[in-house]
Amino acid sequence: MKLPSIENTVVERFLKYVTFDTQSAEESKTFPSTDKQKDFAQIMAKELQEIGLTDAAVDEHGYVFATLESNLDRPVPTIGLIAHLDTSPDVSGANVKPVIHKNYQGEIIQLPAEPAQRLDPIENPALNDQIGNDIITADGTTLLGADNKAGIAEILDAIHYLKTHPEIKHGRIRIAITPDEEIGMGTQYFDVKAFGADYAYTIDGETAGEIEDETFCADTLTVTFTGVNVHPGYAKGKLVNAIKIAADFLDQLPKTALSPETTDKRDGYVHPNNIHGGVEQTTIKFLIRDFTVEGMKDKEKYVKNLANKVVAKFPKAAVDFKIDEYYRNMKYALDKSPQVVENALEAIRRAGMTPHRGYIRGGTDGAVLCFKGLLTPNIFTGGHNFHSKLEWISVQDMKKAVEVIIQLILIWAE
């Protein structure tokens, strides 16, 4: 369908949203993990109400929910649009000062407050597709917050457009703005049944034109070595040091494979990311990642076999294992209803772009929601270099994301 001209509000919204510090905190014992997320959630609920979604509200857990009711006289699927309001704990999100670099011509972009922070197109080849476009960055002292305030701004702009163009027919749309996604807790209190969508999309991806319908499968494997602790002054022939067992074990992990720093594309890894303990007991936590359950289980078996082999060299030592399931590749669920992804790909075509499928070397709220019964692939925002001071996004790509959301809603209404 040929859309009436879109009078975008996305840039103005985005530039305002990024000035709010909504950083989540991994060590927090509360939900959301920071009060400043709840403050921003209230602002988002108010903006949705101003657009005309009168039921917009923040629930007791800090989620923002709202509904754009159908204007059709026949039933069509209810579609959910989801974005998260928190920013990464890795880099400060306080006092973000966005900068617009107009009419980009392929040069190195130097961020004004920190000249050492430079966006070089050689290191950032996606910039080569932005000639003539307007690039938004932070000033070099903070992240930008495109992950995921761009997604929020794009959703609200699309909903604003549909409200101001009632002649465009659409089904029921549910909006969710979630906290604590960056620390893996975004779906902890997300009630899929209450949300009431038949299918949903997170607007949280990167490169324009991309739909992500695959994630890693993820487990946490905890390896605990137990030794024998006696007074070191009388330890000869008696003491078995769990720290040294753990060190021997870690030293035997592959140096050129199976780790995050040596893998890319579709390669999985085993990643020791936490170690603590003492002479009597030392525990190592591993992140186990692969795009298939079978590949992940093979990696878990490899780690266990290596640990058992090392322990066999230390009389009286022992090793125990604990596996915590985290999430699974969303593709296992999405392949059961291919129309969910196909409609998103078609929306990208109708917006004048060439669609391509991508995969995430990580997880998303959508991966968890898929296995809670709500199929939720991921749509691009146009952002790049998430979680860093070199984060950037294109104004034109943000506007394309808005158009894709609108086209997607129309496709589901057809």
The average pLDDT value, as a whole number, equals 96
Largest sheet entry: 8 strands, mixed
Measured by DSSP, the beta-strand proportion falls in: 15-25%
N-to-C CA distance: 10 Å
Overall morphology:
globular
Q: From the 3D structure, determine the CATH topology of the largest domain.
A: Aminopeptidase
Number of domains: 2
Could you give the count of β-strands?
18
Q: Given the helix and strand composition, which structural class is it?
A: alpha+beta
CATH superfamily of the largest domain, please?
A: Zn peptidases
Instruction: Give the helices and strands as they follow along the chain.
Output: HHEEEEEEEHEHEEEHEEHEHHEHEEEH
Which CATH class of the largest domain? Alpha Beta
**Cα-atom Rg, whole angstroms?**
24 Å
Which key features would you list for this structure?
alpha+beta; Alpha-Beta Plaits; 2 domains; eight-stranded mixed sheet; globular
Describe it:
By secondary structure, the chain is an alpha+beta fold. The chain has two domains: 291 residues, Aminopeptidase, CATH 3.40.630; 110 residues, Alpha-Beta Plaits, CATH 3.30.70.360. The strands form four sheets. It has an eight-stranded mixed β-sheet with strand order 1-2-8-3-9-16-10-15. Strands 4-7-18-17 form a four-stranded antiparallel β-sheet. Helix 1 runs antiparallel to helix 3, helix 3 crosses helix 10 and helix 8 crosses helix 10. The longest helix has 19 residues. The radius of gyration is 24 Å and the shape is globular. The relative contact order is 0.19. The mean pLDDT is 96.
